[in-house]
């Protein structure tokens, strides 16, 4: 760490390590060049008989903490970045086992290690060296293991999002999640609903998207029962699950269409969050819903101008078949209300407009609940995977309810203006619960070099924020109180 005048301070673990070497590490750092800046690293060889390679990484300022301007805990972010950089450096040297300094925050250190070492190379002959990372010492083992689970949850979402569309179909997606939840069968129920069930539920909006593809749709329903009181109202998570989005008849341009294999990022983060909650044994009830299908052009596909009927009876004029995510979410949100949830959070790579508005800095949140916003924001400050509140003005509602042929139009009257906001306004037409939030993750779907501890590729964001949010609710009385409010409001 850097002191106030640029002086160097070793972490506790590094100081003990240096002491065991009679100060040799400090001496080498002084003579090896300028003081280590944040994220910069050095490697020393042969200085300790048990560790052939020792990577030292700069942690930044010594007094970093929660930064109001950045909306995150700078210290935690610095640790994630530093540990990730050190682990990758050793991975490139083909080291197979790494012991990691807790840096006074074992959870953040674990997240940096596990997130930083992940790379999707399942389909390549030449793969990165597999590195096992463990905590150096034993003082913070519980926090380290918690951090590993948080990061593994995000890596599961990354794995699903990065895989090609012919490898992750609606059916294979559902099967993978079922397999991941198998160790927690005593607390989890998995229901893979078929097309016949979807038709019985009168989910006409969902079916209008899936019918252009030869791949059958699946409505994946996950029930995690972790609360001591089995009657406690659940947290409902809903994720958009378009396993490949061609745009349908409103066909997307060819450049970058391959990235639409990750258009099920909402479903991936939601399902990975349920898997992580189960692994953590969080004392909360969670229901996860993921309408899964492809959006493809064919002779059976929905045509621009067609009118379809959602589960709640509202008719929708589909003027753009590439605005399909809101259609499948509409039916899933309607269905989710039957569980009388304490809160509803839906997650979707919904609009390019969200990427234009915020880029990859934060997930856009549209919500009808100040309480829910505060819970999500608090969680994001801890994880560093930030959220930012967006408007739900009636101004946008009038733009989707002004439809020539139906109750609603699936695109706003001024299609390019406020696209993320009109999409949120559309979803709101299918929500009666008083505590609902829509997370548009289109901007954070992938990573180039913005998040230093994630390699280039699909990001799996904001899985850790969803898990931290659920954990926050699980360890407070707020959720129960919220359910009481919800019941009163619905009555």
From TrEMBL:
HAMAP family: Cytosol_peptidase_M17. Its EC number is 3.4.11.1, 3.4.11.5, 3.4.13.23. This is Cytosol aminopeptidase. PANTHER family: CYTOSOL AMINOPEPTIDASE, LEUCINE AMINOPEPTIDASE-RELATED. CDD domains: Peptidase_M17. It holds the Pfam family Peptidase_M17_N. It comes from Mola mola. InterPro entries: Leucine_aapep/pepB, Macro_dom-like, Peptidase_M17_C, Peptidase_M17_leu_NH2_pept, Peptidase_M17_N.
């Amino acid at each position: 760490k850097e002191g106030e005048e640029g002086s160097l301070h070793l972490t506790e673990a590094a100081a003990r390590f240096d002491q065991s070497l009679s100060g040799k590490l400090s001496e080498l750092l002084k003579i090896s060049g300028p003081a280590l800046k944040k994220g910069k690293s050095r490697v020393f060889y042969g200085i300790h008989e048990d560790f052939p390679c020792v990577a030292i990484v700069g942690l930044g300022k010594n007094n970093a903490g929660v930064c109001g301007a950045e909306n995150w805990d700078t210290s935690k972010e610095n640790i994630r970045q530093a540990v990730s950089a050190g682990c990758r450096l050793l991975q490139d040297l083909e080291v197979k086992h790494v012991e990691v300094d807790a840096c006074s925050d074992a959870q953040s250190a674990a997240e940096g290690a596990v997130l930083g070492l992940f790379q999707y190379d399942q389909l390549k002959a030449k793969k990165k060296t597999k590195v096992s990372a463990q905590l150096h010492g034993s003082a913070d083992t519980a926090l380290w293991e918690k951090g590993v689970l948080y990061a593994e949850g995000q890596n599961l979402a990354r794995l699903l999002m990065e895989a090609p569309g012919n490898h992750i179909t609606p059916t294979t997606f559902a099967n993978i999640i079922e397999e991941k939840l198998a160790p927690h069968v005593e607390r989890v129920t998995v229901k893979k609903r078929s097309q016949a069930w979807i038709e019985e539920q009168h989910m006409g909006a969902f079916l209008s998207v899936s019918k252009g593809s030869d791949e059958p749709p699946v409505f994946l329903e996950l029930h995690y029962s972790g609360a001591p009181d089995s009657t406690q109202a659940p947290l409902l998570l809903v994720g958009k699950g378009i396993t490949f989005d061609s745009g349908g008849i409103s066909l997307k341009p060819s450049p970058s269409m391959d990235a639409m294999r990750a258009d099920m990022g909402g479903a991936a983060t939601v399902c990975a969050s349920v898997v992580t909650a189960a692994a953590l044994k969080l004392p909360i009830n969670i229901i996860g819903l993921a309408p899964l299908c492809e959006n493809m052009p064919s002779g059976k596909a929905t045509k621009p101008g067609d009118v379809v009927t959602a589960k709640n009876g509202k008719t929708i004029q589909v003027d753009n078949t590439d605005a399909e995510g809101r259609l499948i979410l509409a039916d899933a949100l309607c269905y989710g209300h039957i569980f009388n949830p304490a809160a509803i959070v839906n997650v979707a790579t919904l609009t390019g407009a969200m990427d234009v508005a915020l880029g990859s800095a934060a997930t856009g949140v549209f919500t009808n609940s100040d309480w829910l916003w505060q819970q999500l924001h608090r969680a994001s400050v801890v994880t560093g995977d930030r959220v930012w509140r967006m408007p739900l003005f009636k101004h946008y509602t009038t733009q989707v309810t002004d439809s020539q042929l139906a109750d609603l139009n699936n695109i706003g009257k001024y299609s390019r203006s406020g696209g993320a906001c009109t999409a949120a306004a559309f979803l709101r037409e299918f929500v009666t619960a008083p505590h609902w939030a829509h997370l548009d993750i289109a901007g954070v779907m992938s990573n180039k070099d913005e998040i230093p501890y994630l390699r280039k590729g699909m990001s799996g964001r904001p899985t850790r924020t969803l898990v931290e949010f659920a954990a926050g609710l699980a360890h407070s009385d707020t959720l129960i109180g919220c359910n009481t409010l919800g019941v009163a409001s619905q009555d």
